[in-house]
Amino acid sequence: MNENLKRYIELIPKAELHVHIEGTFEPELMFEIAQRNNISLKYNSVEELRDAYKFNNLQDFLDIYYSAANVLLYEQDFYDLTMAYLRKAHADNVIHTEIFFDPQTHTERGVSFDTVINGITNALKDAKTEFGISSKLIMCFLRHLSEQSAMETLKLALPHKDKIVAVGLDSSEKGNPPSKFFNVFNQAREEGFFVVAHAGEEGPAEYVWEAIDLLEAERIDHGVSSVDDPDLMEELRDREIPLTVCPLSNLKLKVVENLKDIPVKIFLEKGILVTLNSDDPSYFGGYVNDNYLQTAEALNLSRNDIYTMAKNSFLASFITENERSIFIEKLREFENSFV
Ligand code: HPA
Ligand code: ZN
User: Fold this and answer.
1) CB 3 within 8 A of CB 303
2) How does pLDDT run across 211-224, given as a tens digit for each residue?
3) Pocket of ligand 1 (CB under 6 A)
4) Do 168 and 140 contact (CB within 8 A), yes or no?
5) Catalytic (active-site) positions
6) Which letter does DSSP use for residue 77 in this model?
7) Which residue's alpha carbon is at the smallest distance from atom 7 of ligand 1?
8) Single pTM value for the model
């Protein structure tokens, strides 16, 4: 790619809106934490572990992702995990990030909700001071578990309402439609949380409809299968429901065969608020800038396309209108001064 566009992508201020903190767990840190917690990993080295990162579908990945999370036991572990991600995000000129965490992955094995959220939020606070990075936290329910379990998790979150901006839905999509979680999302909205949901990653466009109409999701994570349904595309544009697309994730989990098949250009042309994100960067071979760079290369994106998606990332963020105008002003200043 043209050197100038590459630098533009690297330097442009952006928000990341789809990243799972458990998916930022780099093998080096995994081994370090496993050792200090006296837990043995199935793999003998960082290289051997990385070698296992060959996935045929979402479930293949989830099996490794959940088993890696088993080494996280203490507040310090969650702190270190989060801090490591924030350092990488800052290096990519991410100035605002909205991070998913999966409390059930930890509470199911006896780690308390408080341990998880305190470790994460202490890192968010320190990174704000150290790097000036702004952040929000989104709690995801695991869709392969029951709605009852999600409801119990929501109850655990209520004392921490001030630290969580939204609820989301992740894990194995096929066979676990958004409608399975109708009641818990209703309850979460009544408690004042914003709502997002993974939909249309491996699942059909129908799941995106369910997410926006039944769960009233204000943003859709992935949503790439929306491209199969012209009426849905119109609906997303008219209702200004953003999509958090994760190209390298879709490639590594074989949602698409080739990055050229990611419908980012189609969403842009339709006027849908599409954004680019890393999902689980330590597993999928790249952080947010890698996603921008490789997508730009594959789809021949223009500088204007990149600007639009960076702007979309702020338009789609769960921040105050005052914060939004500050971020967009930063973006404009960058645009005007970039040579
Ligand atoms: N899809 C569903 N669940 C997930 C993902 C994903 O890409 N990453 C982490 N949990
Ligand atoms: Zn995801």
Assistant:
1) no
2) 999 999 999 999 99
3) 20, 23, 58, 170-171, 198, 201, 249, 279-280
4) yes
5) 201
6) H
7) 279
8) 0.98
